Amino acid sequence: MNYSKKTPRDISLNGKKVLVRCDFNVPMKDKTIQDDRRIVSALPTIRYLLEHNAAVILCSHMGRPKGEVNPKYSLAPVAERLSQLLKQEVVLASDVIGESAKAVKAACKPGQAVLLENVRFDAREEKNDPEFAASLAEGVDLFVNDAFGAAHRAHASTEGVSKYLPAYCGFLMERELEVLGSALAAPARPFTAVLGGAKISDKLALIENLLPKCDNILIVGGMSYTFRKALGGNIGTSLCDDSKIDTLKALLEQAKGKIQIPVDTVVADKFDNDADRQTVAAGEIPDGWEGMDIGPATREQFAQVIKNSGTVVWNGPAGVFEMSNFSGGTRAIAQAMADSKAFTIIGGGDSASAVELMGLADKIDHISTGGGASLEFLEGKNLPGVACLEDK
Ligand code: AMP
User: Is the domain defined by 8-172 classed in CATH 3.40.50.10490?
Assistant: First the structure.
């Protein structure tokens, strides 16, 4: 796939109406935004369009309202925050393609920005319904997709509208494609991937795509126990997918030492933060005990690899990091990423939250805004919300 896409810098914007798909899916509690980073990171594209005299029609999803209007998922708080940040009023349409949206779009003048209601208030959004997409595009001249976090979905507002409007790449999306694309195509070496999380089945495609590109793959988290079992160790009641053992055996053989798995593990006698715990050698987990985190020797060994790398990509926690007694491995990986001189990339999701919680986000070169999207990108999949944008 070509990741070099035309952006608003490549086109004439003067007096044009531009539909911009953003990812304003911010964490909310009691109609209050808990973290406005996704809104702030959309500002460079929005400001550029406004400064170049475009009329800006913003749209986004929020949460999973399942195709029904639900005030809990209204974008009203986003419109309010955008108004504050842009220092100009951002009017919110009360629907997505109805009378209100039509009127708000028509009234939007160059230099102004408006916001449509949650696109997922209409079931046709996620079905990528052509009529719905055509209505989104109505009265608009151009489409800009800046929602990297939704780019792995072929929905009406991420892909469908590109059938009706010339489609360009927003600046946030551009940066994601540049960073992730060059990590895969021409990484500073050694290139290390740290891959964790619960299920091996979710990460197999990722490991297979990265194996020929990486110098090291460090396996952590729940999925590491299936690897350990494939080598013949005892893993107690740890997470394991027996159906993948043969695949992993073949993968380890093919990897010729590139794949490293934990050498020790923190185990618990039940899945509980207050469980009894001990550190044991990986593959020597007593019966009835469960692997919850990587142990100190693994933390040290993997930190050294991260330190000596040129590029590091991290996706997935090293243990049950939601429980404080089993968050040490994830914290150690986050700290090693922050301390490394390598170009460091975090693929969104839990790893991004861990780094943010630890106050280390500033020390990471790139934290992807899309967990699922960056995963699919690194798996080598085509992202429909990217593929539909005009190539440079
Ligand atoms: P994923 O969604 O696949 O990236 O996995 C993230 C989840 O994996 C987190 O909720 C972690 O608590 C969980 N996880 C990580 N390590 C383990 C483990 N050793 N046992 C059980 N769950 C784990």
Answer: no
